[in-house]
Amino acid sequence: MNDLKQAYELLSLTEGASKEEVEKRYFILLRRDRSNKQREADEHDDSPSLEEINRAYRLILGHEDEKTMAKYNEASYGKYKKMGPTFQKIDHFFSYYKFHVLGVIVLIIAIIYGINAYINHRHEQAELAKLPPVDVSVSFFGDYFNSDGTFQNSDMKPFETKFVSQFPQWKRVEAFFTYVPQEMQSQQDSALMQKSIIDLMMNKADVYILDKPNFVKLAQDGSLLPLDGDAASKMGFTFKPESAFKTVTQDDPTLHVYGVDIAGSTLLKELPVIGKEYIAAIRINGDHHDNAFTFIEKYVNSVPAK
């Protein structure tokens, strides 16, 4: 059944009847069909079959949906006149494929970001290749601030330049700066603590300059080299007994010197850093133990005698 007029006639409706009237008449005919089936079949019954009723009902409602959609399209896209169908297609495309489009956009952004990161990494590696090898690396790790009172430091050039001027026999000193909050009082403190753990793993410094809580933590977990052991003896490393910081480790219950106090060092005062405690220590698996001993010894010797 393809003729709309015939569908209305089959349902005994006037052409253009409302959707409510169509549905009401449809359900009446359904009930009547069920009632007829309960009675004995009548060979001369010329009422429409259930299949015909369903087809007529679907045809009329489909036509109503088309009219409703046509009104919507006219209201939404009629203002575009001849371009209306084009805008309609574009709108439908983004309605049906918006998540696909968003996924493609995110993928493109990720690719661009990845390419830029790769280019920047290559450029950074090329610049580093031009530099002389690192003679020693130094990390401020603890409750330290920049000279301007901030605790974030992305530019370590002032530190590195000053270190090289203090040790003219060296061509390059690498410096790191990590603020470690002493107490967890806010979400920012928690984030800074997590960052400090990452920095500790990533920045493999030869020399650590620490406050007391972080000195104890690193020394006791075995991260620091004993300054009164064989390595120090081979270097002829000396320090003032009163400046020594001793502790035990998880693996060795014997007291050893793992750090020395350099708070009074005149060399330290030349650096743009603010802190209360300055304990110099050497990472146990550092790459430049000899230069690390040289660095600490010079700072210790620059402390004025009391």
Q: In words, what does this structure look like?
A:
This protein is of the alpha/beta class. The chain has 2 domains: 1-38 and 48-78; 134-302, D-Maltodextrin-Binding Protein, domain 2, CATH 3.40.190. The chain is 51% helix and 12% strand. It has 9 helices and 8 strands. The strands form 2 sheets. A 6-stranded mixed sheet has the order 3-1-4-8-6-5, sandwiched between helices. Helix 1 packs across helix 3 and helix 2 (19-38) runs antiparallel to helix 3 (50-77). The termini are far apart. 23% of the residues are buried. The chain crosses the membrane at residues 99-119. This is J domain-containing protein. It comes from Paenibacillus albus. Keywords: DNA replication, Membrane, Stress response, Transmembrane, Transmembrane helix.
| Helix content range | 40-55%
Helix tally equals: 9
Order of helices and strands: HHHHEEHEHEHHEEEEH
What integer is the average pLDDT?
Answer: 82
Question: What class do helices, strands and sheet pairing give?
Answer: alpha/beta
The first-to-last residue Cα distance is: 111 Å
Provide the CATH top-level class of the largest domain.
Alpha Beta
Q: What is the number of beta strands? A: 8
**Uncertain stretches:** none
Strand order, biggest sheet?
3-1-4-8-6-5
Q: β content, as a range?
A: 5-15%
Organism: Paenibacillus albus
Protein name: J domain-containing protein
Keywords: DNA replication, Membrane, Stress response, Transmembrane, Transmembrane helix
InterPro entries: J_dom_sf (IPR036869)
